[in-house]
Predict the 3D structure of the following.
Amino acid sequence: MDKDIQDRFSTYLEENRVKERRKTEVRFTILKEICDFPKHFDLEMLQDKLDAAKYRVSRATLYNTLNVLIDAGIIVRHQFDAGIIAHYPHQKPIPIQYELRKKAETHYHFVCTRCRGIREVKNMPHIQAPGSNFTAEYASLCLYGLCNRCRNRIQREAQKNINQSQTNKSKK
Amino acid sequence: MDKDIQDRFSTYLEENRVKERRKTEVRFTILKEICDFPKHFDLEMLQDKLDAAKYRVSRATLYNTLNVLIDAGIIVRHQFDAGIIAHYPHQKPIPIQYELRKKAETHYHFVCTRCRGIREVKNMPHIQAPGSNFTAEYASLCLYGLCNRCRNRIQREAQKNINQSQTNKSKK
DNA sequence: TTTACTGCAAATATTTTGCAATATC
DNA sequence: GATATTGCAAAATATTTGCAGTAAA
């Protein structure tokens, strides 16, 4: 499976779609590490993984390689907090995530608006685009809402507040 | 319609969902300008619009207000180039776009992978999420592909290349 | 009168670029 | 040998924060 992806990347580099592209050890090593991630990953995770493998790559090269891989159609970029999640002070945005496109195509993403957890949901919903004159190559669907844990937590907190206000009333 | 949105913002500010929030002239003025945009807009466009209205607002306040509006469920954030568009040197990413949530819910977005144009498509495709145990509040669907103009342009260019290589052959 | 909001400038974070050295074709 | 890639550090961008002054509750 990894082999298949490496081959596809090879073919892309041979194609010279954008300009002449070269097959380098750095690019294939980065791709190899990417293939090992079970889910999506961010830049820092990738950097750490390469460090752990004692393979030093500069940040600039990492950004460049990720773009080449995106252009090759091998990985996709996700920005999961775009949408309806506000960025408040001291609450850092979700870093941009990357994922093998092959994997991304088998599921969709559910983002909890409270804890910001990202859950992969296996069954891709059926999307039926109405008659239109463009060719969609790729669809990105992100659902926002509350995960079970946060929904329960909110309910418990609401209950606690009600209890408290009743206690306060009886004091008066 | 604007009135309705202003009222909803008012209600949100009174609710103190996150912490105490205050109704300020700045916030309502920004929202008023936002309501005027026919489509999505980015931070710079909003800043320019406020400048044109001779209304000075600092950048920090603008970011803060946008987050408050997102949290209030009045606007949504879009990052249209997350996905399958590579960021090459000298090719700036599409700036983060904002849009009235009400508007966003009536259409979806199609992003051309070549010219990066964003087209709103009126008919929202029917999305049927399979049985799952979370409550989706909002769905963001982005389709990537080639717009008609770019598809034609690519075809023309391909044809030109074929013609050229034939001319070269006959020279030899 | 308490606490949130605002503007400003500085600090952070993120991504890109210019250039010299290196590797691929 | 010509040109793309890489690493490094500096630059450009984008966003956040600290703080002092102002305004809303």
Summary: Residues 106 and 124 of chain A are 7 Å apart (CA to CA).
